[in-house]
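User: Can you model how S-adenosylmethionine sits in this protein?
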Amino acid sequence: EKDFGPNKSIKHSRTATPNNRSVADHYNSKPDVGVERRRESTIIFLRNFNNWIKSVLIGKYVTRDGHALDIGCGKGGDLLKWNKANIKKLVGIDIAEVSIEDARKRYNEIKGRKFEAEFYVLDCYSSLISNVIPSGTSSDIVSMQFCLHYSFETEEKAHMALKNVTTNLKSGGIFIGTVPDANWIVKKLKSLPKDQLEFKNSIYSVRFEQRDNFPKFGHKYWFYLKDAIDDCPEYLVHFPAFEKIASQYGLELVYKKRFHDLYNEAKEESHYRELLYNMRVIDRRSEEEMSDDEWEATGMYIGFAFK
Ligand code: SAM
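Assistant: Here's the modeled complex, given as structure tokens:
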């Protein structure tokens, strides 16, 4: 079993330089390295783990033959999951136009494709989706994976994100997603000596600009994840504030779990346990799995579902 205890000591040091690139620039500038290159990445087990978590969330809440909306779909990393989930139609939207081009390409290359898809470029935290899809999407499920936290830059953006979720969701539909766990992050920050603003291990670093104020929106930190995210500004998702706005749009929280707990729960189900091997979260032959530092980094996130 993995060590679920306190996090390991911080080993490697790294000097991060702040930059002011926007989120879209950041993701546009990331080349689509393709499956083979991604397989060689040093964080391959972490990537596979995150993909497995998303498969579990999608698997738990998707409806067969349903319509799905993937906000912040990026390069289409979840396309195969949607295909497996037997949806009828997908709409994928992202602010980064290069990512959307990659997603379209990837969709066209899916062998045995079973669903229709449309892709759009839009800043979903500043504009209504109805600007690009006037009739809306009327989806059974809306998914926001590893992207909602960017909307917590301002209260207005968080509102726009949730407005886009709910105006495109059928009554009784489900909204799923993954975000960094602000509680976990703030606890780590507060456990540092008073003059320090950064915690990290060999895989990730989180660096704050101050630790005196804890605003509900716009609480910025800089995030680095090896081979994935080079020092990108992110914002804490104050979960009670998120739930409160969500309730104003008629959304009720039905599921919230830290990734480590989600893993422990889901791996007890034989189907998801098998998927751990199929998605190479655990190597079937060697039983090799992610390093302690990767495991610590995955502990930063939570998965949620609203109805
Ligand atoms: N959901 C994908 C996944 O799980 O692989 C991509 C996750 S990536 C960490 C975050 C994504 O959010 C990026 O593709 C980024 O362009 C997108 N994003 C950030 N701000 C956005 C906005 N305002 N509107 C739409 N997409 C946004």
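A couple of observations from the model: The first strand starts at residue 67 and ends at 71. Residues 23-24, 27, 72-74, 77, 94-96, 99, 123-125, 145-147, 150 surround S-adenosylmethionine (CB under 6 Å).
User: Helpful, thanks.
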